[in-house]
Structure formats: structure tokens, C-alpha cells
Design brief:
The complex is a heterotrimer of chains A (336), B (319) and C (280). With 336 residues, chain A is α/β, with parallel strands linked by helices. Chain A folds into 2 domains: 134 residues, Periplasmic binding protein-like II (D-Maltodextrin-Binding Protein, domain 2), CATH 3.40.190.10; 156 residues, D-Maltodextrin-Binding Protein, domain 2 (3-Layer(aba) Sandwich), CATH 3.40.190.10. In chain A, helix 12 runs antiparallel to helix 13. Chain A is elongated, with a radius of gyration of 21 Å. Chain A contains 13 helices and 11 strands. Chain A has an 8-stranded mixed beta sheet. Chain A has a 3-stranded mixed beta sheet with strand order 5-9-10. Chain C has 11 helices and no strands. In chain C, helix 3 packs parallel to helix 6 and helix 4 crosses helix 6. Chain C starts with a helix and ends in a 9-residue tail after the last helix. The chains are: A alpha/beta (336), B mainly alpha (319), C mainly alpha (280). At the B-C interface, helix 1, helix 4, helix 5, helix 6 and helix 7 of B face helix 1, helix 3, helix 4, helix 5 and helix 6 of C.
């Protein structure tokens, strides 16, 4: 009975949806809130195109694209030369938005915005600072009454572009981190840590666990009304993640964008630049054999670079600088 | 689940008919699918883990490395976590399960006993992900706020109850696994106890034993193989359990003495990392972990079934 | 003196076994009560009719996941039940000593394989083979889990069909396969069907094998497309930080448990005797 029902329902559905060009994509959770909004909106405006985006993490996005199990991927870590070499069809990087990785926390009695120096962040994640009452935290945060609790460090379990951006930043500001751990979508974490799956999983764990600290994309902290820290940048100023401070971090890259768009903007110069900022990329195969799919993907890219950019600020992402949009529009023609 | 009853069915009709031969071959073909699936499974696990087996050899089992940056992988934290959470589960579910099985077989009248057993077995039908859901929102906060601080305050001198109260970790995962395993222990132990011949009980009681003495000194030893079998069955279940453990174990690839610490299990790391593991070594390492888990569970399952078959065919069931 | 001590021990220990039973049973009621309280608060009409919203947006439902679960489980049943049934008939009626033992052993072995490993198998065979995630891949994984359950249940219940029935049919000159088709299978059908229902209820709640086979989808999906399912949605929603998603996880949990428990209770009413389906 159940079977008959399911089969007829499936048949009905596939008949009804037969006209829609179905495209499957997977990858980063960092931009997932805006991607899912985009794909929903785009489907509303163009019912003939249905793009299913699964936020499984940047690592999975790259892996699934390499295996050819999705039509395109998404990542907040540009693919390495080695990864690109492993692919049968070379991918094109399309920056979509810019965002910030923020440190969010759940500490009893603390509602104000905390301030963190780069070395303090590194030493918390290196398990050298293990109590909230550590004097080095108090030094950056005069007047804040820290509890004596243990710091519970939260990080990602899955291969994550957010992890890459965070560890890339730590590698730049802490030689010890660079030597002991390094930067990647997954790393071997020193010390005792809790692992959460994807950005939502990390935010969920922090929200549930008093005494915890972790890193997520800005939007996940904002949507859940979780406090997030100001971070000291390379000019020595404590800066909060915002549309402006992220845009300032990208200013240098906007002027000198490499042709393949693979660039890191962590620890960027600029008086008010937020130091853990990044572009995030769609990874589009340079050749899509199915003409219908190719057309649909190109159509979406064009829309994303123009109409789509207007959705950014509502979700606290920074829109792309106009120089980059112009460059990317040219790159769309390279998708064959 | 029941022991195969070998005797009794007429093997062949008097005259072998072509229809019979065809029917036999047809069903045999489908039976072969079952066998081939297992062959295929072992083959895929073996081939899929080749890169890892070649690179790490037997050292894979004892290494604690899990470093995707340098491509160094070892299974120990996951094997350790799988075993520790399962042992915690059994320490809770064995007394609870055997106790309840004794009550249901020896004390409760047949009608209520069957009804209660049915309710217990419903516990085994609840999907793993629902145990995880409940654990995240009810058990984890209770562990963090009450049980773990209490254990630290009273038994904190033991290394197994030290460190911060995370709420998630080996102990929490073990408790959830205990709830998931005791239905098996109750259900199968009860069958084994019911299979003990009535005369055994009557003889003990006639000699002046109390009800408890008759049960504990005579009936339970008589059924002990079946009870061991039920424990192994529960253990096999606990070893391979994925979702509920993934949601509460803490997902930290380390070997820690403290039960309060976050850990990992084989099934959980596969669930978390399999779809994103890139390169050649890391996916192979995950598949090799699958291979290790596969062998662990088949050995435990085989033991369980042998023990259960040994007892349930020995006595006669209560009508 | 000593007798009194023994009597005290007797009472204490017997009471303790009662307490064990009470704790075990109450676990079920606590779980059901939590799901009912949190689930009914969260269930609304939208849950059954709407598609999920983007990450972090409140509202929406899981219509696609409900249909997806029916599709995936339905297709798994279509593939798994016939194979399991026929293999069960072989074991009960035609078994050769050696090969029968091998099949019986491997069926039990397959039954005990952790579901996440079955997921690896389906990923390697179907997802990599077809080069995309699909409901079909998820169905294959679930079918692999369903086959050994149905095989062993079918065997068990066909074996319980009384000798006298078979002999009667054979005495009337029926060939063996006719006897099986017209006498043995109908006589054992109650039990066999029960076993099938329990098997299907068991796979309906599986999450791990779907994680990297059927994946998920914010749209309707389809047999050849990545497809949402209730268990995967519950997992996703439960680990997230969003209150509204937690609410939906509870609602989905209630719907899933209702499906599974109704199937279990129905199956046992059909049979009116307890049997247990081991889970991996």
C-alpha cells in the first residue's frame, strides 16, 4: 500500500517536474543561508531551473565535484593546485560574496562584546589558555568579570572552508600554529575540543554549552543572537565583523585580483579591516557537457552577480566590489 | 532469530518434477544474492581501504594520529571510543536487562509478562536518530548540570571522572547506548530463562531454597549461555550504532582516560567525514575503519548467535 | 536467624528485579512523552504541506522529506522484499545442506552489519557508479538492510507451518512447488507479512545509510535526484542552533516515531504474538 502510494507519487512528481532543469550543488555552509535564499528566489523567478544546494561543508563540496557526483561545488577555500590537477575538468572559481569568520562564545554572566588579540586566540586553540579567568583575557578586556570556568573549545568535524579561513588566519598570526597545526579544511586539533558538524552544528554546540567558544560565519551568530568578539587587526585596532570592515579587508584584493580569483584576505592591511574575512567561491566546471545545464548555470551566475548581490546585506554578507563583478562576468563566457 | 529447526520437512516429493527443479533454482538464485551481497561488501571494504592498508600497515590500529594536513591516520582513538562507550553501555544495561528479564520470566504472570516485553521491544524499534534528538535536548543538559558535577564531586579522585563537564562525551554516549541495548538483553535473556525446564525450579524450591535462591543459583546458571548471547547481541548493536553516538559523543579524535571527556567512535567518524574525505589516503583510512568495525561486529554477532542457539534449543518454552 | 536473612535477601532481590523492569518500561514512556509534548506543540499544517525554508529562516515544513521517506522506503521494499522472501523460501523449503548454511550464516551476518557500513557500500556501488546522489541510492542501502530481515523471518514462519498440511498436499499428488505456493506460503503468510512490516518499519528510521546516498534536497527531489528524508532532516535540524529548526526536529521526530510504532503495533496485532527483529 505504502509502496504503491510512493511509486505513484514519485511518478506524478517526476511528470510534473519534467520541465524543470534540475541542478545539484554541494559545498560550503559559510554562505549557505544566502545561497539557499538565492536558489529559492531564482527558482521563483525562473521556474524552469531548480538548483538543489546541500550545505555539507567546503571539503565535501570539493570532493563531490572532483568525483563528479554534483554539477558544481562551493567552497570558502580556493582549491589548491594539487586539487585542481586531480580534476578531469578544470574548475573556474567564481567569488560570490564576502564574509567574516567570528568567534562566538557562551560564558556565564558575560553579555558584553569581548576583545581578542591574535595571540590569545591562537593560544586558546593551542590549549595554552584553558580558563576564562586567564590574565591575558582580562588584559584585553578591562572591566569584564570572567568566571573561573574551563574554556570549552569548539571546532568543526567536517572538512570546512570556515576552518580553512580560521586556521589560515592563525597560521599568519602565530608561527607556532603554523608549525604545529597549519591551515587546511580539516586539521589535527591540539588539546581537548568538541566537534560540531557544519556551521550550524558548531553554533548549536556553543549555544548549548556554557563556557564554550568557537568560530562560525557571522550570519550564524547574528541569526541566533549569539555574542561575537572584536578581533585585533594588523593595525592594532579591535574591529568588529561588519559589512564595512569586511569590505575594507577585501580592498587590496579587489584592486589586484589574480586572474583565477584564488586569493586569501585574512589578516589584511587596513585601519578598520576585519582580519578573519574571506571571499567564498562557487566552483564551476569549465565544461558542462549538458547544454541545458550549462545554460541554466550561466544564467544563474549572471543573475547572482547583479540582482543577487542585493540580497547580501540583509544576511550580513558583504557584496562584491564592482571591479570583481566585471571580471567575473567575463569569466562566465569561459564556461563551455 | 530463532534457532533453525533442522528436522522434519520432507525433502522431496516422490517424483521430481521439472517445475520443482525450476522453483528450486529460482529461489536458490535469490538466496545467492544474499550471499553475494556479503561478498561484495567485504570486497568493496577491502579494495576501498587498499591505499590506507599499504601506507600504514598494522600500525594503523595502534596509531593515534588523525591529521588530514599531513595525511597521517590511525584508528586507535576511534576503536578506543567505540569500545569504551560500548562497555559503559553494558555496565548499565546488563544488570538492568538481566534483572528485568528475571522479573519477566520468573515473577510476572505470562500475560502481563508478554505485554511488558512487547513494550520493552518497542524501545528497540525507536530509530537511532530519535535517541540522538532526545539526548541532545534532555540528557546532555542533565549530564552537564547535575550528573557530571556530582560525579566529579564524589568520585573525582578517580581519573575516569576528571576534567571539565562537557555534557557530551564517552559517558553520555554510553548511557544512550545502554537504553538502546537493554531491550535486546531483556528480550533474549527472558527467552533463555523461559527455556529452563520447570523441574529445575521445582527441585530447588523443594529443597528449601527461597524463590531468589532457586532463580539465581539454579535457573540463571542453567540459562547462562543464552544470557551471555543476549549481552553479545547488545554489544554488537552498541559497537555499530551511529547517529545517536555521533550526536552526543563530542567528536574528538583523542584517547582520554576520563569518561567525561569528548571522544569519537568508528561509526561516528565515518558519518562525519566520509562524504568530504578527499585525496587517496583519507577515504581509504575511513573505509579501513569500516573494515575494522565490520570484523568487530561479525565476531561479536557470531558469538551471540552460537550462545543463543546453544540454550534456546536445550529446554522447552513456557506455553 | 539465617533463615530470616535469606528471606530478606529473597525479598530485596526480587524487588530489585521489579525495579529494573520498572526503569526499563518507564524509559519507553519518558521517550514517548517527550516526543508527544514537544512534537504536538510543533506540528502544524505547514509541516505537511510546505517545503523547507533557507538556513535560518523561520517557517516552512517538511513535505518533501515525508514524501522522500515514503519514496525511498517504498522503493527499498520493492527491491528488498521479493529477494528476501524468495531467499527465505529457499532456506525453509529447498535448502541444500552446505549452501543453505552459508546463506543462513551470511544473512545473519548482513543483519548485524552496522548501517553506516551499508552506506559505504551503496555509495561505492550506486553514487559513484551513477555519478550522482539519488533516492535510488538510498533505497539500495535500505534494501540491503531489509533483505536479511525478510529472509530470516520468512524462513522462520514457513518452517512453523505444520507437517500435516504439507503431507496432505503431497499425498494428493501436488508437486512440491505447488504445495509450497498453495499450502505452505498461505499458511505461513500471517507471520511472513508481519516480518515484512517489521522489517520495513525498521529501515524507515535509518539515517546513517542515507547521509551519503540520498543526501538531502530543499526541493521535491525524485528517484533519480538527491532527496530529503525525515531521519536526515531530524539529524540536520537537531544539531543546528535555530529554535525554529529544533521545533521542526521534534515535529519530524513525532511523525517518524508514529509511523514506526504504528507499523510495529499493527504487525504484532496481526500476529498476536511477540517476535523480535534484531537491529544491526
Amino acid at each position: 500500500m505504502k509502496t504503491i502510494l510512493a511509486i505513484s507519487a514519485a511518478a506524478l512528481l517526476s511528470a510534473a517536474a519534467a520541465h524543470a532543469q534540475k541542478i545539484n550543488a554541494a559545498g560550503a555552509t559559510f554562505p549557505a543561508p544566502i545561497y539557499q535564499k538565492w536558489f529559492g528566489e531564482y527558482h521563483g523567478a525562473n521556474p524552469g531551473v531548480e538548483i538543489n544546494y546541500q550545505a555539507v561543508g567546503s571539503g565535501a563540496g570539493i570532493k563531490q565535484l572532483t568525483d563528479g557526483t554534483v554539477d558544481f561545488g562551493a567552497s570558502d577555500m580556493p582549491m589548491t593546485a594539487e586539487q585542481i590537477k586531480a580534476m578531469k575538468v578544470p574548475p573556474l572559481h567564481f567569488p560570490t560574496v564576502m564574509g567574516a569568520v567570528v568567534l562566538t562564545y557562551n560564558v556565564a554572566g558575560i553579555t558584553q562584546e569581548l576583545k581578542f588579540s591574535p595571540d590569545v586566540i591562537a593560544d586558546i586553540y593551542l590549549a595554552k589558555i584553558t580558563k576564562w579567568s586567564d590574565p591575558r583575557l582580562a588584559k584585553d578586556n578591562p572591566g569584564v568579570k570572567f568566571p573561573k570556568d574551563d574554556i570549552i573549545v569548539v571546532r568543526r568535524t567536517d572538512g570546512s572552508g570556515t576552518t580553512f579561513v580560521f586556521t589560515d588566519y592563525l597560521s599568519k598570526v602565530s608561527p607556532e600554529w603554523k608549525m604545529k597545526v597549519g591551515a587546511n579544511t580539516s586539521v589535527s586539533w591540539p588539546g581537548q575540543t568538541l566537534g560540531g558538524a557544519q556551521n550550524p552544528g558548531v553554533a548549536g554546540l556553543i549555544k548549548q554549552t556554557p563556557g564554550s567558544i568557537g568560530y562560525v560565519e557571522l550570519i550564524y551568530a547574528v541569526q541566533n543572537k549569539m555574542p561575537y568578539a572584536q578581533v585585533k587587526n594588523s593595525s592594532g585596532n579591535f574591529v568588529k565583523a561588519s559589512l564595512e570592515s569586511v569590505t575594507e579587508a577585501a580592498a587590496g584584493a579587489a584592486k589586484n585580483m589574480p586572474a583565477d580569483f584564488r586569493v586569501s584576505i585574512t589578516d589584511a592591511p587596513g585601519k578598520n579591516a576585519y582580519p578573519i574575512s574571506t571571499f567564498t567561491w562557487l566552483l564551476i566546471p569549465s565544461s558542462i557537457p549538458d547544454a541545458g545545464k550549462a545554460k541554466a548555470v550561466k544564467g544563474f551566475l549572471q543573475w547572482m552577480l547583479t540582482a543577487g548581490q542585493k540580497d547580501c546585506s540583509g544576511l550580513t554578507y558583504a557584496p562584491l566590489p564592482s571591479e570583481i563583478v566585471a571580471k567575473e562576468e567575463k569569466q562566465i563566457a569561459q564556461v563551455k | 532469530m530463532a534457532a533453525p529447526q533442522v528436522a522434519g520437512i520432507p525433502r522431496a516429493a516422490k517424483v521430481v518434477q521439472p517445475g520443482d527443479v525450476a522453483a528450486r533454482l529460482l529461489t536458490m538464485l535469490f538466496a545467492a544474492i544474499v550471499f553475494l551481497l556479503v561478498v561484495l561488501l567485504v570486497f568493496e571494504l577491502w579494495v576501498g581501504s587498499a591505499a590506507s592498508r599499504q601506507k600504514f600497515g598494522w600500525g594503523f590500529i595502534t596509531s593515534t594520529a588523525w591529521n588530514p594536513v599531513t595525511d597521517e591516520f590511525g584508528a586507535l582513538p576511534f576503536i578506543y571510543g567505540t569500545v569504551v562507550t560500548s562497555v559503559v553501555a553494558l555496565l548499565i544495561s546488563i544488570p538492568l536487562g538481566v534483572g528485568a528479564a528475571i522479573f519477566l520470566s520468573e515473577l510476572a504472570p505470562a500475560g502481563p509478562s508478554n505485554a511488558l516485553t512487547f513494550l520493552v521491544e518497542l524501545l528497540a524499534a525507536i530509530p537511532s536518530v530519535i535517541y540522538g534528538l532526545l539526548a541532545i535536548f534532555t540528557l546532555v543538559p542533565i549530564m552537564r548540570l547535575y550528573i557530571e558535577p556530582f560525579l566529579k564531586a564524589t568520585l573525582g579522585f578517580l581519573p575516569i571522572f576528571q576534567g571539565p563537564a562537557f555534557g557530551v562525551g564517552y559517558l553520555t554516549a554510553g548511557i544512550i547506548l545502554a537504553i538502546m541495548t537493554f531491550p535486546f538483553i531483556i528480550s533474549v535473556s527472558r527467552e533463555a530463562l523461559l527455556a529452563v525446564p520447570r523441574e529445575q525450579r521445582e527441585a530447588a524450591l523443594a529443597l528449601g531454597a527461597t524463590k531468589w535462591e532457586a532463580t539465581w543459583d539454579v535457573v540463571v546458571p542453567y540459562a547462562k549461555l543464552g544470557i551471555y548471547g543476549s549481552i553479545f547481541l547488545g554489544l554488537a548493536r552498541a559497537l555499530g550504532e551511529t547517529m545517536a553516538v555521533t550526536m552526543v559523543v563530542g567528536n574528538s579524535p583523542e584517547v582520554r582516560a576520563s569518561l567525561l571527556a569528548p571522544g569519537y567512535s568508528i561509526a561516528a567518524v565515518i558519518a562525519n567525514e566520509f562524504s568530504e574525505a578527499s585525496g587517496s589516503v583519507r577515504p581509504a583510512a575511513l573505509v579501513e575503519l569500516g573494515l575494522v568495525l565490520f570484523f568487530l561486529t561479525i565476531v561479536i554477532n557470531a558469538l551471540a548467535r552460537l550462545l543463543i542457539i546453544a540454550t534456546t534449543s536445550k529446554g522447552s518454552k513456557r506455553p | 536467624m539465617r533463615l530470616r536473612w535469606r528471606k530478606t535477601v529473597n525479598k530485596v532481590m526480587l524487588a530489585a528485579t521489579g525495579v529494573c523492569t520498572l526503569i526499563s518500561i518507564s524509559a519507553l514512556f519518558v521517550i514517548l512523552a517527550y516526543l508527544l509534548i514537544n512534537g504536538t506543540k510543533s506540528l502544524d499544517w505547514n509541516f505537511f504541506t510546505q517545503l523547507p525554508k533557507a538556513t535560518g529562516e523561520a517557517g516552512g515544513g517538511m513535505a518533501n522529506a515525508i514524501l522522500g521517506t515514503l519514496e525511498i522506503v517504498g522503493l527499498a521494499s520493492v527491491m528488498g522484499i521479493p529477494i528476501g522472501f524468495m531467499a527465505g523460501v529457499y532456506l525453509a523449503e529447498f535448502e541444500d545442506k552446505a549452501f543453505g548454511a552459508v546463506v543462513r550464516y551470511t544473512a545473519d551476518l548482513l543483519n548485524g552489519v552496522p548501517s553506516i557500513i551499508v552506506g559505504i557500500l551503496a555509495w561505492t556501488l550506486v553514487v559513484v557508479g551513477m555519478r550522482h546522489f539519488s533516492a535510488f541510492a538510498g533505497s539500495v542501502a535500505l534494501a540491503v538492510m531489509l533483505i536479511p530481515i525478510v529472509t530470516r523471518q520468512t524462513e522462520q514462519f514457513l518452517r512453523e507451518v505444520p507437517m500435516s498440511l504439507r503431507e496432505g498436499a503431497l499425498a494428493l499428488g501436488a508437486s512440491k512447488w505447488k504445495m509450497i505456493a498453495t499450502v505452505v506460503v498461505p499458511a505461513g503468510s500471517k507471520g511472513v507479512v508481519t516480518g515484512m512490516i517489521l522489517g520495513v518499519a525498521r529501515i524507515a528510521g535509518e539515517t546513517a545509510p542515507l547521509l551519503f546516498t540520498a543526501l538531502n534536497n530543499q526541493f521535491w527531489g525524485g528517484l533519480n535526484q538527491p532527496t530529503a528524508s525525515l531521519p536526515v532532516m531530524i539529524y540536520n535540524r537537531a544539531i543546528s542552533p535555530y529554535e525554529d529548526w529544533h521545533r521542526q526536529a521534534w515535529a519530524a521526530g513525532l511523525v517518524l516515531i508514529a509511523m514506526v510504532l504504528i507499523a510495529n503495533i499493527a504487525a504484532r496485532l496481526v500476529l498476536a504474538r511477540g517476535i523480535s527483529v534484531p537491529r544491526g
